[in-house]
Amino acid sequence: MGQRPQDADARRAVPPVICYPNETLPAVDIPLYLAALEGATLVSSHLAAPRDATHFHVKAGQFFRISCVDGPQVGDLNLWNVHDLSERFYSGKTRALHGTHVSEGERLWSSFPYLRPMATIVQDSLAWYGMDAFGGSVHDVIGTRCDPYTGMLLSGDTYHYCCHSNITRALADATGMSLHEAEPHVHDVLNVFMCTGFTRDTGQYFMKASPVRAGDTLVMLAEIDLLGVLSACPGGDCSSEHSSDVAQCYPLQVDVLEPAAGALDGWQSPAPNAYDRTHGR
Ligand SMILES: [Zn+2]
Description:
The chain has about 280 residues and is an alpha+beta fold. It has helices at about 10, 30-40, 90-100, 150-155, 165-175, 180; strands at about 40-50, 55-60, 65-70, 75-80, 85-90, 105-110, 115-125, 135-140, 190-200, 205-210, 215-220, 225-230, 250-260.
């Protein structure tokens, strides 16, 4: 450990600067989205069984609503541009732009070189939760996804129903790809309904029992044509452990909703990022 300098306290007292001030992000017309949601009609429903995943298609300008329909349950969400799977949800940049957890008015951004909104959160029935005394909050973009490789690394165990594997199977089913073809497309998730944070003393990633209850929903507008996969995490409400069959698990539902004709007039599906990709050459 290096020697503590004379001015250690002064250096620690320097106030932080927000890395990405986000006031210049394109504005989100939430009142327009909410009005369109009001008159929207059901297109399709999909059920992610406990410890399994479901896939769904949402067209640009349609909504998708993720619902807790039974006991408390968290979900792991992956999103792709249905026309080009190389454009997919970018958890890290979403975190850099909006913070560790996302809620109403915030967006799920896509990978480079696209970097555009894939989906916008329109309604979040858990928005009341805010940030608790432990530094925990809901719907994080800090976790990755539970997976069989980390379990093997830490305990030598084999478990096949982690979100990573559930999403791999569902993507293979959705596209006709083999499991080995589908797996590299699986990416870091939005942890829907999960309550997480970092401990203040050791900075470790923690989870705690989700405040979600039957009837809670997270509603998003698809900004581009999407293929989505939602896994009902084997951690259940994530109050104890994941990556095993120990936790009590419940299903999650995804409903796709179509707004009335004209209800989103003035809205446009966003174009890919305008950077010219010459990278200085
Ligand atoms: Zn999981």
